[in-house]
């Protein structure tokens, strides 16, 4: 029988799968020399988009992304599924169709049973099959702390690339999954969740954004990103800055997993979530009565979150209705305005 991965035996990074903080990453990238411009590189390092896009022909471009992290759930099979869904999501966010993937494995083969690794890979393989993605290889190293993820390649018509830099005043913002995942997975590490809560957050993270991505192709979408490590407000800030618009978030409309605030109050706020808040606090206006827990929740570091979609206001209700009819937990959570550009206003 396969043994669970025990999160409590891993480092503190295991609780949320957080990325390096946005401020730290910006400092590192700023120190690097600028690459020679390439007209075929449609989306690269100059924006904060989810994936790179490289034009091959007038009607075909490649979408490329990579993501990996330490275990955030105890079940190895579920961890593999979460990692795959999370990596594939970047391609969906760019308007692309994922087609191939490479596994990235770091694993302590001398101290953890190899059956655990087999279950991680099986979980990822099943999720890739669900997405219609072919596994074409990978790379592994022996490491004292298990880590797993994938490099994913997709395709997209160059005319249909979605970025986080093209939102327009008047757009409505749709979010396709609840937030609070980082706080929930940190609580899982501390044995604070019920079995039902573990199943709920795991199901959410293993759910592909495929349905949302395919559905939105029939509507006037101006910008898109997926909500992951930098949290809802972190990724919304990238839309605000990249599109030179103001993003307004209706906090009462943002879907949050049950009991998240209670768990946050009990001390289950990941360091990555707090770092996200520190990074964006100067460009966000909160209502005067917003407490610190609610601010952190809006910045919570998510793994395999939903898509944040800026859709033409005339299409928003129809898109929302179709997403919900297809089983997506979508909500209209705000709008885009031409006001205090680069800023977020939480209402």
Give the strand order, joined by hyphens, for the main sheet.
Answer: 8-11-7-12-9-13-10
Give the overall shape, derived from the CA principal axes. Answer: globular
Going by CATH, the architecture of the largest domain would be Alpha-Beta Complex
Number of folding domains? 2
Distance between the termini: 50 Å
What string gives the helices and strands in order? Answer: HEEEHEHEEEHHHEHEHHEHEHEE
Stretches where pLDDT is under 50 for at least 5 consecutive residues are 7-16
Strand content: 15-25%
Global mean pLDDT: 92
- Structural class based on helices, strands and sheet pairing: alpha+beta
User: What's the main sheet like?
Assistant: 7 strands, mixed
According to CATH, the homologous superfamily of the largest domain is PurM-like C-terminal domain
Give the oligomeric state.
single chain
Total DSSP helices: 11
**What is the CATH topology of the largest domain?**
Phosphoribosyl-aminoimidazole Synthetase, Chain A, domain 2
Specify the CATH class of the largest domain. Alpha Beta
Using the CA coordinates, give the radius of gyration: 19 Å
Total strands: the figure is: 13
Percent of residues in helical segments?
A: 25-40%
